[in-house]
Amino acid sequence: MIDRTDIARNWLPRYTGMPLNKFGDHILLTNFRYYVTEFTNRFGCDVYGEHRPMQAATNSEGLTIINSGMGSANAATIMDLLGAIKPQGVLFLGKCGGLKHRTEIGNFILPIAAIRGEGTSNDYFPPEVPALPSFKLHKFVSEKIVEHGYEYRTGVVYTTNRRVWEHDQIFLDRMKAMTCIAIDMETATIFIVGHHNGISRGALLLVSDVPLAPEGIKTEQSDEMVTKEWTENHLALGIEAMTEIGEKGEPIKHFTY
Hints:
By secondary structure, this protein is α/β, with parallel strands linked by helices.
């Protein structure tokens, strides 16, 4: 039988265009090409994978950023492929829709858990297994947010594979009944596949729309505004947290069963 790790070691460079020895020990994941561009502009490093499914770059301090694309299938793919290098920590910088009245565009969310509504994670663990971040990683990220004087929210995020649902009142009522703070398409998958592969993982989400309000549904114009106003701080927090966690953070251990 072909070894699973051998497949990942072959496919990670295949998907990203970046050799294995160029990946750092700490990873930022995103599903927006803009974040990779801003990262490389900040550090003057090269982008790999311009014509591949995913783009990646690593700065001189050994921090890697990867644009893995949108959706839970891509999230599962990159978390499986990162098993080739066994990073010490992975932080997902994603956008989400806020589902609470007190959740406003531009808010940061550190999810305490995610509901597995996407289906992809069922290939890794039974539905009863909760999708959770690594506590010590989130603890360090939260300290960085507070240091910079930003507010953040915590709560449960609902992860779905469905993209166009804003018109569906039955789906909207279900979201309200579950009392989730936000909705996205990757977080639960990253948590579950990270757990499956023994990778410490977390998510720092940026509220980019409030879809339960008709005027709050995302448009091209509103998304451009969010990108202009808040993504620089979002990326900066991720960079600082994942650069310093190896030196200042508590050791993270992954227990196997």
